[in-house]
Design brief:
Elements lengths: L46 E6 L55 E5 L10 H4 L21 H9 L8 E4 L5 E2 L2 E2 L17 H9 L7 H26 L4 H27 L22 H17 L5 E5 L13 H6 L5 H7 L5 H20 L2 E2 L2 E2 L4 E6 L14 E5 L10 E3 L9 H10 L21
Parallel strand pairs: 1-6, 1-9, 2-11, 3-6
Antiparallel strand pairs: 2-10, 4-5, 7-8, 9-10
Helix pairs in contact: 3-6, 4-5, 6-9
């Protein structure tokens, strides 16, 4: 069969008009608004946040990411271990590394032994690519797959202005085995992470720039018309294309449809008033080199503000990629702690005077975010009660293996989760990390029984 060539011209370039900011979640939404006793009670929104830390953690008390047991069968413990002290089933005390989480004992749980089989052959550095996807990129899948945050956004993201917020200290997508983002819409569709606080703030709180709302609506209407023409034109020549061209055109049209949905969504939200946001004390010009402590706090503050204003309910933050040799992040620990040498070297050399301190520094920053959520009342609980927060790395220690990720799981009490425990999934109890993902998805009321290589759920994390 002979296919006649079809010559196409690029007719126009679409210019995004931006998006607005949702109203904050108000306690008045919980019950009757003053003067309206018939108001419908609305439950607090359910949220998800994932934070990734690179190069593993300090675990001098045991090999392979699992603490060592003494002759009495009790776990040995080092004062700078990433894990808190205590046997399975409870947290006895927090050591020097974990002390920042002391106030949050009843709001978090530690998980040992979970990992992604698909990351084993990638190696520790590259397994960070699949932290939220569980994809088997080493053998079974040529590209990465959808991440759990984006599956949540696919089902529930329409309820807010933005489907999700994707952040990273380095920005962009990176490349295969050098990812700088945790979020993926689907196979081969990495979402670039945003790393400049001012740009993130502008997207969240000043989306129109100098334009008025009416001008934005006109721009969106124009964009919608152009997209309609593109869709109509494509139908006229689609049938005459060869198989490979049809595949490429289908991928293109899928992108057009995604833009159409975004334009329609943005148009609808322009009719909702945006709240004012107090920026006092928020240094949006800081960067990780000039002020690493302040920088990471600002990034967490932006995620918090996005949640508290209900602009989005799903966020990810890759604090550092596993391949930072080409960026300033290679010296992150130098900026933060004065360590002489690459941050990556801490993971291999494990100097006693910096290894645990580096973990504590990262823990202090993450605890700052959890405490902001825990100290914000929302309905009959706190924001943390309504937010699932996953924190950890895709390899455990100096060997950079892809086994037994160090993981902390916090929040979500109003979704049925219970805390104050340590759980271990090794030997005959070994299950994939994706079982946790299925448990979280179901807690979000998303009807799934399977994610990647999952084999079930982790009901032991839930209240009976």
């Amino acid at each position: 069969m002979v296919h006649h060539s079809v010559q196409l011209n690029r007719r126009t370039l679409l210019r995004g008009a931006g998006v607005a900011l949702a109203l904050p979640y108000l306690n008045a939404m919980e019950g009757a608004v003053k003067g309206n006793s018939d108001a419908v009670t609305k439950p607090a929104p359910k949220r998800f946040m994932a934070t990734y830390i690179s190069y593993g953690v300090y675990q001098p008390d045991g090999p392979s990411g699992i603490p060592r047991k003494n002759k009495d069968g009790q776990y040995e413990h080092h004062e700078w271990s990433w894990w808190p002290q205590g046997d399975l089933g409870g947290i006895k005390s927090f050591n020097k590394s974990t002390e920042p989480f002391k106030e949050l004992k009843n709001d978090l749980t530690y998980l040992r032994g979970l990992d992604h089989k698909g990351g084993y052959k990638l190696g520790g550095h590259s397994s960070g690519d699949v932290f939220l996807t569980g994809a088997d990129m080493a053998e079974g899948e040529p590209t990465n797959n959808i991440s759990i945050d984006q599956l949540m956004a696919k089902h529930l993201g329409h309820q807010t202005r933005h489907n999700s917020l994707v952040m990273g200290t380095e920005g962009g997508t990176g490349s295969y085995q050098r990812s700088k983002t945790m979020s993926h819409r689907g196979p081969g569709k990495a979402i670039p992470s945003m790393h400049k606080p001012q740009e993130i703030f502008n997207q969240l709180f000043n989306p129109y720039g100098d334009k008025g709302v009416e001008q934005v609506r006109l721009d969106l209407k124009r964009d919608a018309s152009i997209l309609d023409l593109l869709m109509e034109d494509s139908k006229s020549f689609h049938a005459s294309l060869g198989a490979e061209d049809k595949r490429k055109m289908d991928e293109y049209l899928e992108s057009v449809r995604e833009i159409e949905k975004r334009v329609e969504r943005t148009s609808q939200w322009t009719h909702t008033q945006m709240p004012d946001v107090d920026t006092k004390g928020l240094n949006l010009e800081v960067d990780h080199k000039g002020g690493p402590h302040e920088y990471i706090r600002v990034m967490y503050d932006l995620a918090y503000l996005a949640f508290v204003t209900d602009q989005t309910r799903f966020a990810t933050y890759m604090t550092e990629s596993e391949q930072s040799s080409s960026s300033e992040l290679w010296n992150y620990a130098n900026y933060a702690l004065g360590y002489t040498g690459a941050t990556h070297d801490i993971a291999h050399k494990r100097p006693a005077e910096f290894s645990g301190q580096w973990d504590r520094w990262r823990n202090e920053n993450h605890a700052y975010f959890l405490k902001r959520l825990a100290n914000t009342q929302e309905g009959d609980g706190t924001m943390l009660d309504n937010t699932i927060v996953l924190y950890g790395s895709a390899h455990p220690h100096a060997s950079h293996s892809g086994y037994n990720y160090p993981l902390q799981f916090a929040g979500g009490k109003n979704m049925g989760f219970k805390h104050g425990y340590q759980h271990e999934f090794v030997d005959d109890k070994k299950v994939p990390l994706t079982n946790l993902f299925v448990t979280m998805l179901q807690a979000m009321d998303i009807p799934v029984d399977k994610f990647a290589d999952s084999t079930g759920t982790l009901n032991q994390l839930l209240r009976a």
